[in-house]
């Protein structure tokens, strides 16, 4: 029996022909081990996504992908802009526009610094000194707020603003306090304004409009 098996084994060719090789391969691939090695649906999707992004950043764009790439680029731009809004907030100009409608020393005030200066000059021309002083001091505060030097939150007093502004402009500290006192005199104490007091406030406003602050960080007048 052993001799017969050896004879048969020796008679079997070591190199199969084409049909026999295909038959052997089919039998081998029926083994469950090969089924588990097949890529899953997730594997195929992941490979497709990877090929897509590889083609997206490839210098050679496949034919017919032009519109698709344009759509992808537009979506990426929108996502980046939305992320910028979430991380850094709205642009500074919008913040300033919203601040311009806020309370300013007890009154709602939407005018810009230049508009307040013009209104103060008109009041001074008509010798309405109380109004001119109040408007010019508001112009001073609004100007520093627009420049991002001193913010004036609702409830801040003129003297709190003057102290905050003095930290940014130390050389003008005394003049700022005098201008704040002039505002208080005509606004709350009902003392009559004068051309001299208006000139004092206007002088401080003009001086700080041309000056550079001592520090880079904006200061806030405490409420």
Describe the fold and architecture.
The structure is a single chain. The protein has 11 helices and 4 strands. Helices cover 66% and strands 4% of the residues. The longest helix has 23 residues, at 66-88. The protein has helices spanning 2-11, 18-29, 32-36, 41-56, 66-88, 92-99, 113-125, 129-146, 158-168, 173-187, 195-210, and strands at 103-104, 107-108, 150-151, 219-220. α8 runs parallel beside α11. The strands form 2 sheets. Strands 1-2 form a two-stranded antiparallel sheet. A two-stranded parallel sheet has the order 3-4. With 223 residues, the protein is mainly alpha-helical. The protein starts with a helix and ends with a strand. It has 3 domains: 19-58, no CATH class; 63-89; 95-220, no CATH class.
Question: Which shape, going by the Cα principal axes?
Answer: rod-shaped
Based on secondary structure, the structural category is: mainly alpha
How far apart are the first and last residues' alpha carbons, in Å? 109 Å
The tally of beta strands, per DSSP, is 4
Order of helices and strands: HHHHHHEEHHEHHHE
What gyration radius follows from the Cα positions, in whole Å? 40 Å
Number of domains: 3
Largest sheet: 2 strands, antiparallel
Query: Roughly how much helix do the residues carry, as a percent range?
Result: 55-70%
